[in-house]
């Protein structure tokens, strides 16, 4: 690491002829600092400077260029070069300088006299006389290249003359390697003087690097500069390897690696640490470096310290090699077998320390031809993470490496199917071939069915799901000869995946019915019950039947069916009103293993199921806590906008926030969602529903109404008649009323009532009856709302009950039944506040205040008319008809009639004809 050869400059003592100085790209500032010292020496005063730089930074070239400039300025130039192979020879550097300064024909003692030690003082004085005599002929430029490698005697000579030439025209320039201690017992300052100008040569910039490489400034030149640190020597080594399309971060030179390895032999244990650091790359840590290098920790620490000082390793808690080009060069110099074995050892060490799987797998990739059976699981896990983080090519590399191991038939099928998924992202025909290869590899039926089911569970949807369905279909056909028990679970999972990924109606359920009779396996019978439950839900025929089938499906401990996205969404929608079954569902979903889908955090499904149940019961605060904590975990895995379960969680949270009155938070979350990409049954439908509710709640009623209608159209297109999946009709009817579309509101309310009555569950039916109470008038409205309240009191749906109470109390107040209104609205306020539904609580509270004001007698009459009764009576006395009064006050005619009847009774008159006189008398009496 000591010599930087430049063929344009001499490397031993010689006078440099006067000629134009060669151009050094990017070194103009350093040369300017050196030439700024010329006037001081030319004026008769000594000056000195030290050029410091890493290996290859151009110290020698800069020194020789400065020497050429000094010669042009009238200096006598003498340059000597220290050499690692000559550092043991006494007087080597001093002899080079003496020979360069010696005037031809001048008698002097033999050069060997400079080497002592017999006449040490005489020899030192002789060297000083040679320098002094040279200054008598003119200013002197003394350059010592690689002074850290100079022999001890020469260094003593330099130290001896330094304080004796202070008033002589001498300029001394030394170059030294960063972090390299000088030999023996003379310090650098003793040779250069107490205050030398220290000039550090750093890496070149982009422009200079581009000039050396012969490139135009741009991204490629920048990448090359980053890979080499702007080191000129490394840039020149990189240049011939810079072929079109090459990545500078991946390039290296075996020659550079050999040079570095040789130079490190000067320091104990440094070569082993150098190789270990190159193998470990970004994983390099002190313990791992020492273990991989096979070096005692104290020896490793000393070697690392030396290499940090030489700027080969980063000065940090993770002493990695500083430059990618250096690492690649060391690796290229390493025999392939040695590299492979060391990468295998590194993988094992990292695995034992609990390093991330992908870091272990990166070393397994390089350990080609080495058998590492334990690494297959690591490679598969790393591939899974890579594919779902958008790096399918890397995932495919991991899996192809896994296939090099000796695998059982079952494991080979699993790896081939996983590889098909990775390759499907970039090369669908190759993926299809992988599936066929996996089918041909099947040896164990049960294992193959399990693997295919796992694949169906692990892929989120869209094109990925189509690949899984195709692969499962091929495997099912291969397993069909094993009888219905063998193939049924796989057929069931395939059906669910097909139903959930379609944009249109799901496949015909009757296609599966023919295979039910022969089923004897309990697991197959449970999956049969699950599909019966699903069919009941889709048809919307009977909540009781659907719940019973779900209960049968949950009698075992195998919860894979409930983990399937489509099935999970519908099951939780149905079971939310069944607390006992919710608890059982959460126990089935609460498994110790990680979920099949990489985007779904561990424990996410039971948490989401519990949150849905809490929301259905009206416990909005606790539900939102469940959803928010889960959403943060989906965000960490990048699954909030891509995974169906993540989208479902986000939509449920938006719905919850709307009821809580947190409209800004709901808007912000919806802004993150991709409505174009989310086209599955759960994703887009739930998002449309949540957005429709938010828009209606925030005053964008027309847009919200369209979202809710679109949601309904999609559900109808999917054949989904279950009214509790998303109660879109109830909110669409309210929006239609707000828009003045009473006929549309009535139609939606009637449809909702028919569907909810057929289904038979309390919450959907109570919600439909509440909506019916809004579109009907007077007695019919009151009967519907009373029935809604009775129905909802038998269910845990407290928020829906609070809504029905609010509507009934409002109706009572509108009809002048203030006493009834106050009691009903008081219950509504308490219940809505308990749920945390602030918008509903505010509305109920306002209606309650109005009812109480209406019950208070007007102050300007003595017969105790309420404010509303007095207002209506005055309008009637002025000649307005009941219809006109109802229109003006936004009341029904029936309500106007009730208020007038109360006024007649309190005024003691038979009818409208006597109103004027009775009111006038009342006011005079007041």
Automatic annotation (TrEMBL):
Pfam families: AAA_16, GerE. Residues 858-926 form the HTH luxR-type domain. The keyword Nucleotide-binding applies. Residues 1-28 are annotated as: Disordered. It comes from the Bacteria. TPR repeats lie at residues 802-835. One of its GO terms (molecular function) is ATP binding. The keyword ATP-binding applies. GO terms for biological process: regulation of DNA-templated transcription. One of its GO terms (cellular component) is cytoplasm. Keywords: ATP-binding, Nucleotide-binding, TPR repeat. PANTHER family: TESTICULAR SOLUBLE ADENYLYL CYCLASE, TRANSCRIPTIONAL ACTIVATOR DOMAIN. This is LuxR C-terminal-related transcriptional regulator. It comes from Amycolatopsis mongoliensis.
